[in-house]
Design goal:
Length: 351
């Protein structure tokens, strides 16, 4: 017998899904135009060349579901027992787009579109701001508009921007805006940049299966190792997919980081105020998007603390209601489960 998944908290908690994707027509069209004209990077060609054009059942389902901020999505949430979804413009946002004015327009109109959907369904939908890191000052302004005028609770950055990373000085206005306004920074994967993707495409491993986690964990680790959290101790960084594997690697990362600092082997690796564990436990939050594994979730809780681990589904890319049943049945205390599904998200996003 398969138990019905209901919303409303009859298990003792609401289920808040924190990494849920939507798209706009003009975003997809702009990206597909780049792909068609041969101007997109390899990661975008791989991701949207597939999801944007493949006639397969999976991609058709995903395209249709990404574009919907109404009945289809609500029905899926009802079926899977998801009370609230934290929504963000799907990867790569507007970060693959070369024309910065065009990119800003698409991001800003996506924010307006999402805000309208959130107003229509205030009990179900929660928004995160889309920005255009190609213009950091504009992005800082859009973050302010997202928080103050549109009621958004975070920002999703789809990892690198044309091979550049948020620890680079030109992006400082974005980090400062997040820290100053208490806006959680969710770094979500996209395809690795051309300098990194190399032989991954031939192996079929550049996407969500592996390349995403490699590149996004690298991005996050750059923030940790270059002292971003010493500069901005209040900055909240959110990572999906089991915090992109960092909790699993943390002891080795920390040991080798300290060894690298002591030997002065690299110009950029300088002593930090804390060891890397500290930042994982005080600045980083992890979701289990695309990783419905009790073993991985418990490892995250062990390493990061159970107050920093959140539920996410990754709809519509990974829509499997049975995963919710499995996580409901995890052998952790009721109190920990409530933190995981509900109260950690409420605390992080100030809901
Ligand atoms: Mn995702």
């Amino acid at each position: 017998m398969t138990e019905e998944l209901k919303t409303g908290g009859q298990h003792g908690y609401l289920r808040i899904a924190t990494e849920e994707a939507f798209a706009t027509e003009e975003q997809i069209n702009a990206i597909l135009r780049l792909v068609k004209e041969g101007r997109a990077d390899k990661g975008t060609v791989s991701l949207w060349g597939f999801y944007g054009t493949s006639p397969s059942e999976r991609t058709t389902f995903i395209r249709e579901r990404l574009l919907d901020l109404g009945d289809l999505r609500l029905a899926a949430m009802d079926e899977a027992g998801i009370d609230k979804a934290v929504l963000a413009l799907t990867s790569p946002g507007v970060q693959s787009i070369h024309d910065v004015e065009e990119a800003k327009g698409i991001a800003s109109r996506a924010n307006d579109h999402l805000a309208t959907a959130c107003e229509r369904h205030p009990d179900r939908f929660i928004g995160m701001t889309a920005i255009c890191p190609q213009d950091p000052e504009w992005s800082a302004q859009e973050l302010k508009r997202g928080k103050e005028e549109l009621g958004f609770v975070g920002v999703q950055v789809n990892s690198h921007t044309h091979g550049h990373y948020l620890d680079e000085p030109q992006f400082d206005p974005i980090l400062r805006a997040c820290a100053d306004m208490g806006i959680p920074l969710y770094i979500h994967p996209q395809g690795p940049p051309d300098e990194m993707i190399g032989s991954m495409v031939d192996a079929g491993l550049e996407g969500a299966i592996f390349g995403f986690a490699m590149e996004t964990s690298f991005h996050a680790l750059r923030l940790l190792t270059t002292g971003v959290f010493d500069r901005y101790p209040s900055l909240d960084l959110v990572l999906g997919h089991g915090a992109e594997g960092l909790p699993f690697w943390i002891d080795r990362l920390n040991y080798m980081f300290n060894a690298g600092v002591r030997s002065q082997r690299y110009e950029r690796l300088k002593p930090l105020q804390h060891n890397l564990h500290h930042y994982l436990r005080n600045n980083v939050w992890g979701t289990n998007s695309g990783l419905p594994s009790p073993a991985s979730i418990k490892l995250m809780m062990d390493v990061m603390g159970e107050d920093r681990v959140l539920y996410a589904m990754d709809y519509p890319y990974q829509y499997v209601p049975d995963e919710v049943r499995m996580l409901d049945a995890m052998d952790i205390t009721d109190e920990t489960k409530r933190k995981f599904f509900q109260t950690n998200a409420e605390r992080l996003f100030n809901l």
